[in-house]
Amino acid sequence: MQIPPLSATSQLTYKAPPGSPAVAAGPADAYVGPAPVAAPSSEGSKKTGLRVAAGLALGLVGLGMLGCAPPLGAAPPPAVTCVSQHYQATGDFTVEIIPEGVHRVDVMRGTHTVTEKAPDGSDVTRTVDNDYHPVGVYLGDGLFYDLNENLVLVSDRIENGPYVPAEASRINIDPPGWSNSTDVSRSGSSWTVDPPGWSNSTSLDQDGCRISIDPAGWSNGTSVTRDAQGRTVIDRTGWANEIVLTRSADQVQVDPSGIGNTVTIRLSEGRTEVDPPGFGNTTVVTHGPGQSRVDPEGWANETSIVRDGNVIRVRPSGVFAQETTITLGQGQIQVDPPGFSNETTIRY
């Protein structure tokens, strides 16, 4: 399956789930210079005096330069990390790859419009969900904002680290089919996502606590920023398109533009609740070492995610439901959903 580009008419809508601290400068290094030059006992020539004055001036300049330069062998300043009162891990604000087979709970689902022909030949426009994308920005607390503008909660990520190691610099996402793989490359704090086709790559650049997402085209970028208080702003192109995430001790308020559409994510030990607007539509996620369980409103519709060694098993409820397995191997991840010949391999 080819990862589709985002439609120009896409927008974010809510969809309910189914059923560094500053481093203090050290003391200045003391400079030990040569002994002072004694003044000549006789008057001397003007040239000699000029030479002495020039030497003293150069010596003073040298002292200034040495005073400003860092001591030899000093370590570079620490890298900026987006650590605040409620985000203690440096990996809580970074570009990540989360395999598509890993279960997601929609918080804010991206959508786009499609136009189809009705039986009478007229055009019919409808709104459909964006596909999930494996590349995006991890925001901590299991929250993930992907390149197709989906903000989701990944229950398995709450208790576990990233799926692809942070130091990986070249990743290949190979879904079923031919000539449809996506390459992801990293150089320093910049990533390039290159899907099949021409001139359609997306770049992601991190500058401290700001990640810029720049897809192909003009004036269609997104910025994700986090301030010292842990407030995160996802700012898309256009007007009134922001999503603001405000973190407190026991919850995250997800507030898109508009009125009455705030989603509250309640956090407690071993339990996370996704509570969208309205009544009777809260999704409860329980999680612990090696397993999590996603329970939306309704009956017999929960999903369990179990880790068995290096294998993750995603098991929907139902007598005839089939599981998806994600195998975390050395240098690759194998995603095997129900069916035949439809595996996705992520190599790094």
Compile the SSE list and pairings.
Layout: E1 11-13, H1 46-68, E2 94-97, E3 105-117, E4 123-129, E5 135-140, E6 143-146, E7 151-153, H2 155-158, E8 170-174, E9 182-187, E10 190-194, E11 202-206, E12 210-214, E13 222-226, E14 232-235, E15 242-247, E16 251-256, E17 263-268, E18 271-275, E19 283-288, E20 291-295, E21 303-308, E22 311-316, E23 324-328, E24 332-336, E25 344-347
Antiparallel strand pairs: 1-3, 2-5, 3-4, 3-7, 5-6, 6-7, 8-9, 8-25, 9-10, 10-11, 11-12, 12-13, 13-14, 14-15, 15-16, 16-17, 17-18, 18-19, 19-20, 20-21, 21-22, 22-23, 23-24, 24-25
Structure overview:
The chain is mainly beta and 348 residues long. It has helices at 46-68, 155-158; strands at 11-13, 94-97, 105-117, 123-129, 135-140, 143-146, 151-153, 170-174, 182-187, 190-194, 202-206, 210-214, 222-226, 232-235, 242-247, 251-256, 263-268, 271-275, 283-288, 291-295, 303-308, 311-316, 324-328, 332-336, 344-347. The chain has one domain (11-16, 81-347). A hairpin with a 6-residue loop joins strand 16 and strand 17. Residues 4-14 and 16-80 have low confidence and may be disordered.
According to DSSP, the number of beta strands is 25
Shape: globular
Estimate what percentage of residues fall within beta strands: 35-45%
Mean model confidence by pLDDT: 82
> Which class do the helix and strand fractions yield?
mainly beta
SSE arrangement, N to C = EHEEEEEEHEEEEEEEEEEEEEEEEEE
Q: Cα distance, first to last residue?
A: 19 Å
Total number of domains: 1
Q: What is the CA-atom radius of gyration, in angstroms?
A: 28 Å
Largest beta-sheet details: 18 strands, antiparallel, barrel
Query: Helix count, per DSSP?
Result: 2
